[in-house]
Amino acid sequence: MRKTLKDLFLAMLNATLILVVVALLLLVLLLTKANSLSETFAQSLVSLEPLEAGIETINSEASKMKAEIALLKQQSQGISFTKLDELEAKLGSIETHLAEIKGSMSTLAETPDRLVNTAVASAADYAVGGAARLRGCVPAGTE
DSSP string spanning 80-131? Predict the structure, then answer.
């Protein structure tokens, strides 16, 4: 009887230790994924700065072109302005789109918590999916 209780205790201790090791392994995998997501997030924020500078350059060039078209209209009298009006309309449309893009980028840069929340949510979904696959022993291809 004593030997049976001893074997039962050792089996329970062994199972507990195995569960602790599995839990630590899952924790390490989750932390690795969260770390890679935070690095990707930091790189994404840094890569927005050159893009914003490029948009500013394009916006200033569009403004210069608009001024040149206005100057051409003043200098040329008696000439049809239909093409110049079309160009001016297109430049106005481009400036509007650039302003929208710049506004979106500034909103994104000012509120990085939305990116962090998205990254954390995707990491949590990944972890839950991994745990579900482990629990159900579902092959990786049938997610």
Answer: --HHHHHHHHHHHHHHHHHHHHHHHHHHHHH-HHHHHHHHHHHHHHHHHHHH
In the chain, domain spans: 2-127
Q: What is the pLDDT of residue 63?
A: 81
Contact 118, 37 (CB under 8 A): no
CA distances from 83 to 19, 59, 88, 89 (A): 75, 21, 9, 10
* Residue reference for tokens 């051409």: 72
**pLDDT tens for residues 64-122?**
888 887 777 777 766 666 777 777 788 888 888 888 877 777 777 677 667 677 777 77
